[in-house]
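Example 4.3 (complexes with small molecules)
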Amino acid sequence: MALRAALRSKFSLSALHSQLSPCSSHGKVCVSPVIVSQRRNNSTSPKIKVDFDQSTGVAVMCLQSPPVNSLSLDFLTELCISVEKLEMDKSCRGLIITSGQPKVFSAGLDIMEMYGKSPERCGEFWKAVQEMWLKLYNSNMVTIAAINGSSPAGGCLMSMTCDYRIMADNPRYSIGLNETLLGIVAPFWFKDTMMNTVGHRNTEISLELGLLYSPADALKIGLVDQIVPEDQVLAAATKTMTKWLAIPDHARQITKSMMRKPTIDKLTSNRDADIKNFVGFITKDSIQKSLGMYLEMLKKRKA
Ligand code: CO8
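Answer. The structure with octanoyl-coenzyme A bound is encoded below.
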């Protein structure tokens, strides 16, 4: 609720609502020409650039939060606002998510948001992580991840919320849920999302060992659906989008919901308990120590 309030006040979604007028016979929402022209190729926030092509109904969302698109509370909030705006616009049928940062799609959750922070702040952060997952996993749009760089942990989660994943075929990039390497445990809905993507056995091995897969290995287990040369990721995503948009929206959306609803319901009916669990876990001295050591390791590796 707090995030929703933040979303509303910060970017004035009510103003957007007021420019949407209901169509008489179908109760559907139409978009006024004024807002259509405003929305073309607009940049919704400094860290998230959205290019919406009215003629195709496809938006390309480019994540550009230097250096590695780590998912901080602010960035997650902006991401949720951008997705919600597109979701409300019925002329937007497809969303491609990609990165504007070199070599990295997203480094996952911002570790600094989980290190040395108060329980209240951790709770607020976790709520935003949940919100991002709910918005993307539950989206009515066709969503494609154009993974043009490494995508560990929360980055992998974000990719897995999409309907389809295309990754740059560069062996230096990796993708996976590596939480155990940080001494932390992927929550049940991370696990469920991965199980829905690559099956029980692959998830069991991946999660216990915190495996990060090369694009070729990710393709083998179905963690990504396609690998293409690095300079063709966006073009391949656009081509795939055309194929998916050829399916009638209502049939595809109902099917998607049928496949994902049980997983979504599991979190929506347990959000508060999940936040409490996260806060209790992440603020433990032993877990804070593990995170501190991991941060040190990241810095040393750089040096
Ligand atoms: N959060 C915060 N800062 C980060 C993160 C991150 N996730 N990743 C990298 N950074 C920082 C680095 O420390 C570095 O900072 P500085 O410049 O101050 O030294 C800067 O970003 C650049 O990083 P690199 O030099 O390492 O950049 P490279 O391009 O060489 O590598 C990688 C990019 C591959 C993304 C690499 O940075 C990396 O592996 N990062 C760590 C990724 C990771 O392990 N993320 C896990 C986050 S945890 C998560 O998402 C799920 C948590 C679930 C919690 C459940 C608990 C119950």
